[in-house]
Structures are given as structure tokens and as C-alpha cells.
């Protein structure tokens, strides 16, 4: 698909094929308005108005489409997404109403990752018309940000290393007039020692770096967005098994979310002073890899005993979070594909949300529910802080107990965030193991829209 195609366009009365939305409760009444041949066509396609059902119905010399939804009075982001992938290329208009939130899923359903394989869907775009012209730009921006996350995650590590994450940040900086600062290689040892330790074993072409972007008026509220950029995670010397490495190209999913959220903030002109930070590394194995038992210095001044080299994401985030707090950020938000424990607890669809302030957590949860991007809050339970105690350093990077792994990881990060800062942590999977309408298998944006809508409401002025 050509990303420049306008998949959502203003309805100015142009020729278009009609789409009828039908739910189970209203199916019989709607079917009575149709001709006998049309009802027969629906019966032949086993269409009864259930969610995600689709049908093509003859209509004179042409045809219209039918789409089953859960409730015609309450459309979701995804209710028309299956139809967007099933219909022939062309222009479409909804009968008797406007698509509303379904515009988003219509757009994202037509995403294809075709960098390495020619797209088999070569017909062209499916265009949906809407009379809500004012909403188009915002919906398209969110869909494009979502697709950016998908593409960055789907790209293999050889083509999406620290250098490529830097290039993506440079592209955003140039597009929006932002300031880009990058600290690379051995220069990290002084200012970002944990980032240096994790990334130093990688080949020179994948050298570690701290990527920082700043944008917005100097007197605007300062918001820091941090994304874990582990471009491939072998596990380090505590090496993963083959099966554990299979999806580790996605371990920079936090960075993908942070970059996409930054693009929304800048592109939509949010009234904030944005500070984007992406610690970008490859956790590799070589003679100079950091070791189990090493004690690392940190930017914060805390010392960290390495009890697991496969718990490296929290190390690079620790230095980044410290830097994020140094310039007076009132809100710090990080995204990370951090723990398998969060996936065991919540599965692949729900990011684990940690927040210091109840009101911030509530705002994020409400925002996510309103745009079909839900999260689930887990606790920053003080009683588990002693699981991170070390005999020889200020703390360990991985608790020896197998309990509460997502919480202890979040508590580790909490030690590197200034006490007075409103801090939010998303432990997100960044991947869909199976296709869903509008949400293909592969890289996934989970928590992105929730964060964006919360920020947009909080800083609307």
C-alpha cells in the first residue's frame, strides 16, 4: 500500500459504494427492507449481522456491502476493519450515519509490511468518505503513528539497530524543527554508564547511543518520553535459548512507541516542552560483554549489581530516566518491552501500566478505554522493594525471587526517577501473535493512543 494514499476523504457527494452496518438485534428488521434476491444473497453468505461478518449484496446493476457490528449505536475503532481488508479497491460511504471511531481501524486495516516481500494486495486503496472533515487529520495522524510503531518493530535487527533508531529520530527532528543530541560509543561511559555497559559488546556498526530530542517552547510544561531501544536482545552472557531470541527484534518496541508518540506531540502542536530520550543498544555477547556479578555505576550515582544480564532494558532505562528528570520534567512517561511477567499476568493485548499518581493512572485508563486501547494497572508495591536489595551494591537489577516480576522491574526503574516527578511506566508487549481485524500479526502499538489522548486532554490549553 502506498502510505501517501488518502484512505479517508471528505464526503462531497462523489460516487461511492454504500456500506450498511447491521447488528444482530436489527438484522431481521433490516433484511425485510431488502428484495428476495438480496436476502438470498445474504443467506448464501451466512450473514446474520454478527460482529465482523461481511457480505456483498447485488443492487440493480451494482452492489452494496453489509458489515456486521456488535452495536450500531456504539461503533468501535475496529468494527469496520475486517471490511476494509475484504472489499475491492474503491470508494465507500456509510449509509445512514458517519463512521466516527471506525475511521481509525479502516485506515490501520490497510497497513502492509512489504519491505522484503512484494505486497500481494495490489488492487489499490479502499477509501472511506466522512462528513466529519475536521476529524480526518487527527485520525490519520494516529493511524500513521500506529503504523510507524508496526514498521519499526517489524524490521529485523540488522536493518533496525541503534544507528537506524537515530536516523528515525533525526528525521522527526528535521520535520518538526527539533533539536537532536546523540551521545555514542565510549562517550557514554561518563554520562550514561549503564547504557555503555549494556551496549559495549555490540559490533561497531551497532554501537550504543543515547538519542535525545527536544522540541517546543521553553516555558511550556516539560514532558519527557522515554523508550527502551534494545534493538536485539541475545540475553547477553545469560544467553537466551533459540526460542527466546525468536522475537527479540521487537525489544526496541518501547523506542518505537516513544518515537511515534513524539511524532504526534510535535505534529499536532501540543503545548508542551518535549524531551524524547531513547537509549539504543544491542545486548550482544563478546569478550567485553558485561557479566553476571559486575557492579555498574549509574548516572544517578546508585550502584547496581548485575544478577541477570538478560534484565538489561531496565539498566539502560535507568540512565535515561535519570536524565529525563534533571531538567525539571513535570511528567515522565516510559515505554518498554520489559518483562515476560507482564505477559503472563495480562496476555499480549494489555500493557501493564504503573503510575505513581492515581489521577494520572485513572486518566490514562479512561483515555485508553475511550479509543479502544486499554491498559491494566499493576501496583508499585512498597513491600517488594527489598527484593532488589544487594549485599554489595545499592540494588540488584533482577530479583532472585520469581514473584511479581513486572512490579519489581518497575520498582527498579522507580529508583532512578526523581521523587517529585509524576511518572508513568508502560510494560508493553509490542507484538500481536495472531491477526485481528485492523491489527495484523506482528509489531503492535499498545498504549500509544491511550497516552496520546491523555496528553492531548491534559495539555489542551
Q: What's the end-to-end separation, in Å? A: 37 Å
Helicity, as a percent range: 25-40%
- Give me the CATH architecture of the largest domain, please: 3-Layer(aba) Sandwich
Q: Any low-confidence stretches, pLDDT <50, length ≥5? A: none
For the record, the count of structural domains works out to 2
Whole-number mean pLDDT: 96
Strand content: 15-25%
Q: What characterizes the major β-sheet? A: 9 strands, mixed
Q: Which oligomerization state do the chains in this entry correspond to?
A: single chain
Number of helices: 15
CATH superfamily descriptor of the largest domain: Zn peptidases
- The class by helix and strand makeup works out as alpha/beta
Briefly note the CATH topology name of the largest domain.
Aminopeptidase
**How many β-strands, per DSSP?**
20
CATH class of the largest domain: Alpha Beta
What is the molecular shape? elongated
What is the radius of gyration? Answer: 24 Å
List the main descriptive attributes of the protein structure presented here.
alpha/beta; 461 residues; single chain; 32% helix; elongated; 6-stranded mixed β-sheet; 9-stranded mixed β-sheet
Can you put this structure into words, describing what you see?
This protein has 461 residues and is an alpha/beta fold. It folds into two domains: 8-132, Leucine Aminopeptidase, subunit E, domain 1, CATH 3.40.220; 143-458, Aminopeptidase. The chain has 15 helices and 20 strands. It has helices spanning 27-31, 36-44, 81-86, 102-108, 133-154, 162-176, 188-191, 193-199, 242-245, 253-267, 313-325, 340-346, 358-370, 405-414, 448-458; strands spanning 8-10, 17-22, 54-59, 62-68, 90-94, 126-130, 179-184, 209-215, 222-227, 229-233, 273-283, 295-296, 304-305, 331-336, 352-355, 376-377, 395-396, 422-427, 431-432, 442-443. Strands 7, 8, 9, 10, 11, 14, 15, 16 and 18 form a nine-stranded mixed beta sheet that branches. The chain has a six-stranded mixed beta sheet with strand order 1-6-5-2-4-3. Helix 4 links the parallel strand 5 and strand 6. Helix 5 (133-154) runs antiparallel to helix 10 (253-267). It is elongated, with a radius of gyration of 24 Å. The mean pLDDT is 96.
